Amino acid sequence: MLKLYIGNKNYSSWSMRPWVLLKQAGIVFEEVRVRFDSFDAQSEFKRTIGAVSPTGKVPVLANADLVVWDTLAIAEYVAESHPNKKLWPTDAKARARARSICAEMHSGFTALRSHCPMNIEAHLPDTGALIWRDQAGVRADVQRLVDMWSALLEEHGGPLLFGEFTVADAYFAPVCMRLHTYALPVPAHIAAYVDRVRALPGVKAWIDEALAEKDFLDFEEPYRLRR
Which residues contact 84 (CB under 8 A, 6 or more apart)? Predict the structure, then answer.
């Protein structure tokens, strides 16, 4: 059985992507949650993950003696191992486009990720308003998302980016969490896409379990002293 190592569901956006991908696709896997205590070399988290992956980071997918790290590599491995799930679009051009936007998310949107860390439990509209006012990079990142998602939803007719659920929707699920937590302003059709992603069974399961964690980590909370 596949074994997926993840961090805290409330905070770990990277862990969310492959977990949602597997869950939404109905692929059976064992979850191994490794709590974030700190990211120091001698932390319990680093020692546990370091024994599994050379990067010492989550997520990590293990299958018998095979270990796959990095979210894009995990997505590709899962898609290749389960071709019947059609986790990438079947059309070659759409498939290339989906891979392109996932790679863009993987390496880009740094302002949004830096200033709006994922925090599913929190509701921070006032903080989001200040970030929106003061951080031009966040505004630029959100505009890129609006342009990208609008074009794809129009081209493929929704309800998701390429019509049916694909890796791309799993990849942008943590972004949907950020837009919701910080109440960043987006057009109505983009807000509707965010709501549809949040309502996907695989995403909803992650959200519910994130809310149940009750684990406040100060180093993941730049905007709050406590819950």
Answer: none
